[in-house]
Design a protein that fits this description.
The protein is an alpha/beta fold and 624 residues long. 34% of the residues lie in helices and 25% in strands. It binds 6-O-phosphono-alpha-D-glucopyranose. Residues 317-320, 364-366, 369, 372, 415, 417, 617-621 line the site of 6-O-phosphono-alpha-D-glucopyranose.
Length: 624
């Protein structure tokens, strides 16, 4: 989703901003733009398509020399992707100063504001809500950018992270947030701001975050512009009502290597392949074999409430929703607590009933998904205890929950979520065992699961060894435009996830469903050559899945089966078999999803598609 970068300091800003935008490309976008305060005033460049198109534009047109600037990658919400609609947007004050704004979020009352500003004589060139904000700040500007931004934001409803500059104040960058993410990096003699840490880490590890309705004024510059001395940097944080607030400087736990490709062709492949290591990190320090217990420091303060909970309500979107569905099975099965997983976007609008003793679990890689955050707040308001299963440390959801467990799988850059899904399922398994042990599970049973969990990194490594074989099998079917993914029990959400992965990056139409459901309609789709991917590992429903496979075969479908290592029986029914180690049923999703990630990856590469930048998708969906 939209990405923001801003800089004020001693270094020439244009290339620095473009490099920052490249780090944010993975979030998904359709156009990009930059504004720099130069000696000759504000210089703006915007273009449709990739950041490299903007980079070429900046190089060929020139004139972007300056030390204060903002830049943006836009993911269209109001108005189509076009140069006109790309950010930065501008407004002109009554005294003729130019204001430039980049924005992530949605201004909900933009129609009324637009009318007010049009009546005041402002002429709009785009269809965006952001231009309203630029013109409103300009309308209220009387030489103090911080005050104009505060005043404007008091008139606005909606969600925003914004960065604002004016040609009248060549040393000042003002930013603010409500609902959308924004991080401020404190670098040497400079400030750099961005929507996420990946665009900051090259400059500093010292960061500040803002809470909702807070504004930061960041100044870096010299009193004497000609000599550049003495150089002064200062920042101030306030609320939109201009009440000073103090913010702590934090250390970013991220290194540059983690967000670079490291020899892989794509981030998605890198993240699939590094899953043994990321799951090892996720499990680190959390398994105490001697005591047969799970150690989750982040939940300790709530342990009594959690153990006595009457119901768990998991809420999420996308891939995290599929992990939440597996969490539903795990909590019921291992902890014997009624559990239910719902799309966050549906949950919040159906006037949900939250009884006493409800624990709401927000599952999210980014910790910024707008619907998940809103559902979490709704549940909290209605009295639920809120916990987070989140990857990004310090993200909004992580901060809004009463307690939580981080995934610790490292930054996920690939738009199609892979290692975060496996991390989410692993953490939900740990939570179910943490509670199960305190409710009724014997030490022996807990210990047996923990032993198996500790083997997961090695199990995943073994599945990854089949990548070439999976590639060759996919190559035989990749020309087919409709695929089905089927599984039962714990592997039903895995089938949903397999179908989502394939859709997201290969644009092949795919549906996932419970294997038995196929007979109630979708079987009509099956014809000669249609690929049907079964998760058919050994377990309580194995024989039933084999029957479903035969139903597909009888209609000419091509079966690709994820099966337990050593299951020779299944070869007679399947065109291709992707083996996974034999693990207890509740732990199977952690291994069975891996071949499906590889199916999607190889299908997209075989179709010649840009795996890390799938069309229309955003990594982090911060609008509802
Ligand atoms: C977007 C992403 C998905 C992700 C979903 C939820 O749709 O493209 O990969 O699963 O958002 O994101 P979250 O950050 O909350 O896990």
């Amino acid at each position: 989703m939209c990405g923001i970068v801003g800089y004020v300091g001693r270094k020439p800003v244009a290339n620095l901003l473009i490099e920052g935008l490249k780090r944010l490309e993975y979030r998904g976008y359709d156009s990009a733009g930059i504004a720099v305060v130069t000696e000759k005033g504000l210089k703006v460049g915007r273009s449709v398509g990739r950041v490299r198109v903007l980079e070429e534009l900046v190089q060929t047109t020139g004139g972007f020399e300056g030390f204060l600037g903002i830049a943006h990658t836009r993911w269209a919400t109001h108005g189509s992707p076009s140069e006109r609609n790309a950010h930065p947007h501008r407004g002109t004050s009554r005294k003729g100063d130019t204001i430039a704004v980049v924005h992530n979020g949605i201004i909900e009352n933009y129609v009324a504001l637009k009318k007010y500003l049009t009546d005041k004589g402002h002429v709009f060139e785009s269809e965006t809500d952001t231009e309203v904000l630029a013109k409103l700040i300009a309308e209220l500007y009387d030489g103090n950018l911080e005050h104009a931004v505060q005043s404007a934001l008091r008139e606005v409803t909606g969600a925003y992270a914004i960065a604002v500059i004016s040609d009248h104040e060549p040393h000042t960058l003002v930013c603010a947030r409500k609902g959308s993410p924004l991080i401020i990096g404190i670098a040497e003699n400079a400030y750099v701001i961005a929507s996420d840490p990946s665009a900051i880490i090259a400059h500093t590890t010292q960061v500040l975050t803002l809470d909702d309705y807070q504004v930061a004024r960041l100044c870096a510059g010299a009193a004497d512009r000609a000599s550049g001395e003495p150089w002064a940097v200062e920042f101030r944080t306030t609320t939109i009502d201009n009440v000073p607030v103090s913010r702590d400087v934090q250390e970013l736990e991220l290194d540059l290597q983690q967000i670079e490709l490291g020899g892989y062709d794509h981030f998605m492949l890198k993240e699939i392949m590094e899953q043994p290591e990321s799951i090892r990190n996720c499990l680190r320090g959390r398994i105490d074999q001697r005591e047969a217990k799970v150690v989750l420091g982040g939940l300790n303060k709530l342990v009594r409430d959690l153990v006595r909970a009457k119901r768990f309500l998991l809420t999420a979107q996308g891939t995290a929703y599929h992990a939440g569905l597996i969490g539903e099975y795990l909590l019921q099965d291992l902890a014997k607590i009624p559990a239910q997983c719902e799309y966050a976007s549906e949950f919040r609008y159906r006037n949900p009933i939250i009884e006493d003793g409800t624990v709401a679990v927000a599952v999210s890689q980014s910790g910024e998904t707008a619907d998940t955050l809103a559902a979490l707040r709704e549940a909290k308001e209605r009295g639920a205890t809120a916990i987070g299963v989140v990857n990004v440390v310090g993200s909004t959801i992580a901060r809004d929950t009463d307690a939580g467990v981080y995934l610790h799988v490292g930054p996920e850059i690939g738009v199609a979520s892979t290692k975060a899904f496996v991390g989410q399922v692993t953490v939900l398994t740990l939570i179910a065992l943490y509670l199960g042990k305190r409710r009724f599970l014997s030490d022996d049973v807990v210990r047996a699961y923990l032993t198996e969990l500790e083997k997961m990194p090695e199990h995943i490594r073994r599945v990854l060894e089949h990548s070439d074989m999976i590639h060759d099998s996919v190559a035989r079917h990749v020309h087919r435009n409709n695929w089905l993914f089927l599984g039962r029990g714990y592997n039903y959400p895995v089938a949903l996830e397999g179908a989502l992965k394939l859709k997201e990056i290969s644009y092949i139409h795919a549906e996932g469903m419970p294997a038995a459901e196929m007979k109630h309609g979708p079987i009509a789709l099956i014809d000669e050559g249609m690929p049907v991917v079964f998760v058919a590992t050994r377990g309580s429903q194995y024989d039933k899945v084999i029957s479903n496979i035969q139903e597909v075969r009888a209609r000419g479908g091509r079966v690709l089966a994820v099966a337990t290592e050593g299951d020779d029986h299944i070869h007679q029914y399947a065109d291709a078999v992707f083996p996974v180690p034999d693990v207890p049923e509740p732990l199977q999703p952690i291994v069975t999803v891996i071949p499906l990630q590889l199916v999607a990856y190889h299908a997209a590469v075989l179709r010649g598609l840009d795996v890390d930048k799938p069309r229309n998708l955003a990594k982090s969906v911060t609008v509802e």
